[in-house]
Amino acid sequence: MTADELTTVDGRPALRMERRLAHPVEEVWRAVTEPERLSRWYPFAVVALELRPGGAMRFDDGEGTVMDGTVVEVDPPRRFSFSEHAPEGMHRETDDLVRIDLEPDGDGCRLVFTHVFDDRPGAASYAVGWDLCLRMLGTVLDGREPDWPTPPQGALEERIDALGLGAGRVEDGPGGPVLTVERQLTRPADEVWAEIAGDRAGNAAGDGVPEGLLVPGVAASGRTEAKPPELFEYAWSADSADAGRVRWELSAGTGHGARLVVTQTGRAADRPLLEAALPAWERRVREVGRRVAGLEG
User: Fold this and answer.
1) Which of 62, 101, 137, 167 has its CA 20 to 30 A from that of 28?
2) What is the pTM of this model?
């Protein structure tokens, strides 16, 4: 049994993943709460764990990133939850929460893994990683040493589609309506820029707009800012008048590839034009995601 969904907990995005394990609850409880076992399938090695509410946790990825946490709930053998504090240098207003719920299921166990966070567009990336971790949990329970495979090509794109993360939106901003489409990608910004702009040197020579940054129905009227591979902005027009800006931005995202954010601003009267353009931008950004993942558009 596998079931994944994107929901909310206390108003925050939450990834809920359900798995059936062919091991009794008590055995799974030990695998998720004993540091030596937890470290074998969790993304970070758990180097400290006080198994009590309020107890301290410490994680170390072995590559220089150390993260602290706090035990939130301990209800053996049914629930274990803890918060993860952001590593130093990562700006995050609230801690992530991880909750593991267990219940008997015949001669096995039903596990519900919930990750609560703030970065909704990053949910697909988290889902790919957690799915792999939960598979490694099964390996540990089977008494074998985990052999961490690389996620299959296209796994992130499949999760984005399955979790409904490809949808954009048109909202009212301070200066008028704003269209936004956001997507986590699998490759770094310089490689993404090369794919969408056809420029592997990261340049933006001339005054034109690369064809890969356009969609039908949105008339570009000249670039306004270019700092590839992180940013490219151009003006668009309606009825021969300047209507607003289209902006492509590439940032670090979840750290496993660039985050692409495309915005289009307009005047109050242009909201119908932005709503009409939204499906084209959603398709364009999806094409970018699939291309950089090595898939067909």
Assistant:
1) 62
2) 0.90
